[in-house]
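ok, trying the design again with the full structure, not the truncated one.
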């Protein structure tokens, strides 16, 4: 994240309207200016952080003082309306703005709709229990807020009760940090909070300083800490808890093994309370920071802490300044003991960071696919706990969301919590410097347990070890790249440390309670990269690039279509395509069939059973053993009926997806910390570029001790499989690209490959740009000009996108009659009748396997590239004008060498027609080589087909092997059929090898 820029009104408005910044600070505005900023925010798509905290300094210009003001109620109303619409803002600061209860209500109503905001600061706004009630109501529905600052308001005990009642009923349990400092909360409010904390296991940081909870209130909170295992930081400074309150806290520390940072400063704690805390430190092994400054602890009390520190190994900060008189010698002894702990912790942290240790990543990828309008995007929103939106636009290309699924909060048979939307590194900071590596090292250093066994045990699986053995036996369970880590890359020299061992200040800065919070959250959550694939056919050739071998897939279909006799076969055809495509790329990945619109069918129970029979008998049979069964019904179903509008079946679907992820042992396999160091270094480059070269990554890897090319390749493959970046490895040329922002690449490709009806560009806009004919030709003939490409990509990274699309066979150069275009086969829609083809036939028969959409389009692209390389169509009068159709091509690849191909969807075949028998051997070799190239580069080497050649004498089709053995003429008349194509070579080399 770039640093927040503070601008005046005009500059801020300009920046918002132009999408120039991701972080702004704005204040000292008039009401009308606030309204204009809010209106601009509705349209803005770049801003992530907006700080409107009112920090007005003394001005000398009287007019400026009169015209500017805090947000107030009206400003809060404007901003609330804006964030109801805005879909990119993550953090909103509105402190010291006098929004009061009415303004709090406006923002609260916005939070019930908004699902992007993760941090909200409402400090010092005169919000009472009335405003707290509105905020609490919002928290019941909101699924995204992670950090909420309500400090220095007027909420009182009743307000605290409202807030925690709201959190108890929150669907997503997303809140991690809550600040209720300085809110007139007493022991009654503390009792409400304590009761809520006993059942809350997601809140990590609770700040309650400068209230009046007293000893009794501290007792309620301490009682909660004895059973709560999520609170890492508790701030209770200046609450007058006294010795009794400190004793209660000491009792909690004897039991609690989670809390890391405890602030009991300014609390009238004397030696009695201090001694109890000191004794607790002898038992507690997790507390790292204890603040007891400005209390009544004397020299004797301090000595008790020194004795405790001789046994304690975790405490690194004990603040005793401004207590009763404590001698310099005692303070020095205390610091000496803390220094030992500090050094020990530092060494363990650095050892974990710089050694060859590992920890589970707990990360996977969910791919949501299906026919257009089946409700995929609505399903993703439901899984994230977002409200149903019937006006949501159709997905263009691919839409990627990052989210967390909490392992701990659910008994998976009753209720599942919505996944919490997050950013790539999990906390929204955007700062990737050592983010993953530090968290991995912290988990190892503190031995934070992974909760996979706990979550599986809750499901009722008794023998976790046996489950592990079963999972490990499956190919999908442990990817080769992870399984061989420990054996393949044994420890060698220690990796040069990115965190100098003698840099104590950096250790203190990096290793703190916030890092522990993140590390603990990592251990207790599943990080999910959710890919929502556009359902229109035009996108299918592109989708093959982004299917991964591992992860979990969900195929969404419209349940109504299987009950409609006119739509049933088409619906089954789409389902078959998706299931076969997934099997092609991920043969052992778990797949869930999801039937949407279940609430809209008549006689729901009967229809659900009828659809199950249709799917079993006419689609699945025994061909897809990786399907996840819906076995919680009275009778087992092969699919999951849901309805997004009615929220029907969503919790069960979410639960089953999470369970599928948890049963994938690869998700919990340990990944080396050094790989995370490499990941952090790679992601840090996102600030500068959307992609980097492999050579740059090799230098990064070498600098941290990863020197084997195979290990670097395996690490990048893992990052790709988990949805962190795009790194295709089919050819050396493709390997050289590492795309750091997958969504950026998907969006770029979708500027070219898009549905002409659903996702059409504005004709007026292109006419104004002088590109009206270019637009028409692109969607009519699938031919684009250089000017068109530059316009849709805004002149940015044009060469990169063109090169990438060439290498992935989504595009090829097209030269015709001295004109240069780009051919995009996915945009071809015109169909050519098979009866119009003539010549000797060669049939590439996929009917026993699967002919994916995208194969024929790539054949067209390769033929076009071959043709451009060899200057085909040198004599148009002789060769004829090329035919380019969705299902057929006819073109001269080089002077005298012509190819005719026809795709039959019904027969699941590609048929080649040869009129010039002398060209039969070369035609066969070229197309077989091209099919091999498509399979290797884009289909995961998963294509299978039978080749049958027509015998010109009998007219019968003869199998390839038989025809070759008897050198059947004309297919095997010349020796050049013995040539070998270089399938893993870059495009030009490949084309040269088959020429």
């Amino acid at each position: 994240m770039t640093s927040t820029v503070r601008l005046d009104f005009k500059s801020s408005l300009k920046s918002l309207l132009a999408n120039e910044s991701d972080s702004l600070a704005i204040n000292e505005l008039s009401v009308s200016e606030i309204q204009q900023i809010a209106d601009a925010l509705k349209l803005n798509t770049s801003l992530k952080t907006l700080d409107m905290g009112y920090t007005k300094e003394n001005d000398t210009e009287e007019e400026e003082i009169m015209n500017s003001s805090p947000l107030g109620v009206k400003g809060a109303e404007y901003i609330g309306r804006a964030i109801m619409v805005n879909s990119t803002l993550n953090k909103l600061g509105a402190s010291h703005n006098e929004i009061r209860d009415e303004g709090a209500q406006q923002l609260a109503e916005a939070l019930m709709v908004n699902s992007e905001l993760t941090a909200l600061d409402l400090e010092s706004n005169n919000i009472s229990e009335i405003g707290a009630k509105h905020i609490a109501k919002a928290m019941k529905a909101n699924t995204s807020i992670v950090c909420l600052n309500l400090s220095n308001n007027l909420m009182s005990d009743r307000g605290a009760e409202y807030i925690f009642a709201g959190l108890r009923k929150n669907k997503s349990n997303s809140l991690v940090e809550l600040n209720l400092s300085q809110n007139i909360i007493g022991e009654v409010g503390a009792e409400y909070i304590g009761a809520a904390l006993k059942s809350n296991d997601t809140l990590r940081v609770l700040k309650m300083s400068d209230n009046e909870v007293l000893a009794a209130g501290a007792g309620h909170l301490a009682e909660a800490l004895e059973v709560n295992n999520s609170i890492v930081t508790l701030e209770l400074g200046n609450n007058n808890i006294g010795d009794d309150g400190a004793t209660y806290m000491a009792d909690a520390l004897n039991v609690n093994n989670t809390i890391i940072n405890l602030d009991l400063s300014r609390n009238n704690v004397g030696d009695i309370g201090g001694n109890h805390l000191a004794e607790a430190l002898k038992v507690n092994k997790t507390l790292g920071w204890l603040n007891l400054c400005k209390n009544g602890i004397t020299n004797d009390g301090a000595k008790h802490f020194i004795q405790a520190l001789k046994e304690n190994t975790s405490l690194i900060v004990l603040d005793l300044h401004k207590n009763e008189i404590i001698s310099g010698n005692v303070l020095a002894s205390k610091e000496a003991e803390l220094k030992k702990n500090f050094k020990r912790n530092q060494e363990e942290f650095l050892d974990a960071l710089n050694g060859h240790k590992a920890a589970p990543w707990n990360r996977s990828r969910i791919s949501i696919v299906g026919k257009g309008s089946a409700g995929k995007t609505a399903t993703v929103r439901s899984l994230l706990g977002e409200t149903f939106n019937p006006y949501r636009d159709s997905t263009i290309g691919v839409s990627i969301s990052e989210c967390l699924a909490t392992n701990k909060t659910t008994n998976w048979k009753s209720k599942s919590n919505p996944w919490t939307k997050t950013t790539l590194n999990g906390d929204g900071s955007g700062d990737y410097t050592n983010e993953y590596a530090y968290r991995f090292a912290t988990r190892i250093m503190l031995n934070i347990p992974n909760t996979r066994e706990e979550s599986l045990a809750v499901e009722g699986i008794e023998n976790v070890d046996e489950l592990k053995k079963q999972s490990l036996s499956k190919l999908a369970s442990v990817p080769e790249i992870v399984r061989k880590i420990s054996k393949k890359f044994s420890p060698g020299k220690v990796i040069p440390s990115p965190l100098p061992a003698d840099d104590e200040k950096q250790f203190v800065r990096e290793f703190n309670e916030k890092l522990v919070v993140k590390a603990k959250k990592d251990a207790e959550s599943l990080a999910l990269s959710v890919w929502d694939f556009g359902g229109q056919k035009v996108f299918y050739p592109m989708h093959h690039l982004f299917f991964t071998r591992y992860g979990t897939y969900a195929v969404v279909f419209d349940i109504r279509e299987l009950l409609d006799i006119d739509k049933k076969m088409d619906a089954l055809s789409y389902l078959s395509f998706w299931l076969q495509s997934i099997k092609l790329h991920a043969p052992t990945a778990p797949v869930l069939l999801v039937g949407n619109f279940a609430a809209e069918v008549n006689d729901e129970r009967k229809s659900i059973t009828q659809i199950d029979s249709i799917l079993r008998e006419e689609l699945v049979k025994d061909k897809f053993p990786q399907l996840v069964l819906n076995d919680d019904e009275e009778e087992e179903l092969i699919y999951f009926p849901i309805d997004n509008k009615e929220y029907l079946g969503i919790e069960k679907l979410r639960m089953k997806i999470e369970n599928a992820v948890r049963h994938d042992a690869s998700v919990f396999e340990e990944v080396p910390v050094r790989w995370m160091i490499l990941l952090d270094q790679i992601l840090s480059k996102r600030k500068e570029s959307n992609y980097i070269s492999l050579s740059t990554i090799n230098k990064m890897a070498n600098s941290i001790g990863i020197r084997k090319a195979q290990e670097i390749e395996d690490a990048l493959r893992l990052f790709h499989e988990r949805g962190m970046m795009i790194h295709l490895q089919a050819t050396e040329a493709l390997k050289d690209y590492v795309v750091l922002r997958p969504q950026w690449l998907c969006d770029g490709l979708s500027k070219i490959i898009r549905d002409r009806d659903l996702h059409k560009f504005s004709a007026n806009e292109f006419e104004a740009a002088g590109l009206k004919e270019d637009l028409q030709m692109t969607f009519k003939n699938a031919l684009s000009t250089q000017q068109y490409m530059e316009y849709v990509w805004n002149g940015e990274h044009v060469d990169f996108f063109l090169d990438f699309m060439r290498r992935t066979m989504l595009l090829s150069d097209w030269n015709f009659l001295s004109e240069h275009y780009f051919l995009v086969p996915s945009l071809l829609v015109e169909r050519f009748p098979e009866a119009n083809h003539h010549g000797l036939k060669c049939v590439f028969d996929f009917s026993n396997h699967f002919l994916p959409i995208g194969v024929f389009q790539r054949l067209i692209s390769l033929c076009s590239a071959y043709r451009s390389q060899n200057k085909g169509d040198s004599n148009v009068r002789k060769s004829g004008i090329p035919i380019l159709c969705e299902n057929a091509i006819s073109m001269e690849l080089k002077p005298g060498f012509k190819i005719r191909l026809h795709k039959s969807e019904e027969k699941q075949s590609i048929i080649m027609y040869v009129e010039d028998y002398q060209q039969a051997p070369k035609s066969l070799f070229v197309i077989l080589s091209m099919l091999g190239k498509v399979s290797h580069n884009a289909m995961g080497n998963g294509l299978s087909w039978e080749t049958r050649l027509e015998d010109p004498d009998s007219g019968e089709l003869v199998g390839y092997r038989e025809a070759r053995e008897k050198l059947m003429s004309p297919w095997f008349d010349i020796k050049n059929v013995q040539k070998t194509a270089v399938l893993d070579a870059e495009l030009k080399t490949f084309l040269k090898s088959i020429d």
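Keeping the full-length input from now on. The first helix runs from residue 9 to 18.
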